[in-house]
Amino acid sequence: MAKIGVYLEVDEKNHCLNDVSFELLSKAKKMKNDAKKINLKDNEFDIIAIALSNDICQDSVKKAFSAGADYFVHIKDESLNVFNQIVFSLSFVEYFSSNPLDIIIFPATFQGRIVAPRITTLLETGLVADCIELDLIEKDEKIMLAATRPTFGSELMATILSKKNPQCATVRPHTFIAQFDEVADNFSDRFFEYNLKYPLQPTGLKILRSFFENVQDEYFENAKIVLAGGMGLYTGKNREYYEKLESLASKIGAKIGATRKVVDMNLMPKINQIGQTGSSVDADLYVAFGISGALQHVAGMKNSKKIIAVNVDENAEIFNYSDYKVVADAKKVIDDLIDYLNK
Amino acid sequence: MNIVVCVKQVPDTDDIKWTKENNLDRSNMLSRINEQDEWAIDYAVSIKNKFKDVKISVISMGPMQVIDTLRYTLAKGADDAILLSDKFFSGSDTYVTAKILALGISKYLSGFDLILTGQMASDGDTAQTPVSLAQLLGIVDATNVVEIYNADKNNVLVSQKLGSVINMIEISTPCLVAVKNPCKEQTKPLIDDYIRAQDSHIKIIGSEDLSLDKEEIGIKGSPTMVYKAYRPEFVKDAVELKEDYIQQIVDFMVKVNE
Q1: ipTM of the complex
Q2: N or C, which end of chain A is more exposed by having fewer CB within 10 Å?
């Protein structure tokens, strides 16, 4: 039986799993089910959820099984109380050396981004970053992980295979959707604790002070409506229509998004940037005003449930990613919306 | 104090052109230094301006054209430069690239105290090579660094921004720091600097210098391979909202807010 490992991220404060963990587990489950349709002998996979932490909250464990885990491995040691990339990567590799995996999926969170390349480098294997799609495909009589990611500023999609096991990929939060199925309560026989044999003490790096700043990821958290502006709102002179977008958003309790170009031109702050180098959103309603639809932007908004695009150019790329389109000058539509709501 | 800065030459991604077959049109593609790597150079130069006895070495991997980028970094204030260039290097993925860089640094720049890199390259966006390089060199890394406050032979003091959290970190040398914020002091080379850079020697290193076997580098030696590349296709067939679209948009908004 081949094994798909999912690296879970544990919150340091409440010891619960971060949401991205469940998204990855649900995706792995879907991959596993799809693989059964491949007409090859070894088309069965087990999903191993792996968490590194001294403590783990039991609700999260249950949720992990419900999201798709077949087995849950809790790599446990006091040295894992606080995240350190060297300690975590070597601890993971210690577990792996006696429990090899064929595929490993990592979250492309801050932790995942620094721990995954260390792990794959230690294992002398490859790593595909920020995948937007993962499939199990048949190639040369084998089932392989096909990991698709945007590259060249998202102008190009590349599907990448790994010649060596473990085949590894990272996935950003909100790329896939977590799905929870009913789970029997007797999952305890599929939960394993792994105590480190060679725990390490962090060296060389000391966090002197930590503080919070209200930025980026949090701004769009749980956003129901996002109104996003592109260069189509630019008058060539000032921020007039971005200010109007702000007032429209505040009227209806929406969050404001912006494209890279708009942010680069200082028409909107960086915190509002949506796309490959900004935030990803999965709003209930996403309205794109004067956005052309560059792929690096689309990458950050395409998971929204309902997308309306307003653009004066009837051939704008953004329409290809939208549920509804309005072919009109976005500036005029904003004026009309404000007038309508003022009535 | 010895600082090594890793830089990459990248295509100017604001100006990508495509062939009829949807391949990248590389014929007229402009190249530039990866923006974040230029910030890394700026940080190195600002450390050099602040403290005595700082030497900056720049290292890059790529085709011979990268010499232009290296000359630019020399004009900005680097002291010497190494170009890892070999036709057998081409097609290396992040792991093999990190391996070649690690070998080059270990062999020619082994006395380094600090390695500076950009957080990620604009053409690949992976942010993997610096972390992989740190692992191969067996040193600690700080990524997502937005400010370097102090750097000496023993310690480097930086702040790191992880989403909404800002960490002030002290790292012992030797270490690697990946920056994702421009340095306050940016050096703009003057004509004299370019003239000086023309005379500086750039060392060219190939696979044989690093005793690397052809089988373990480039496309052949990379654990990952591109299976297919494509420009994304249209995904949805949008319904056009006509005359009463204002009313309809408002209806959608109201429905979501219910």
Answers
A1: 0.87
A2: C
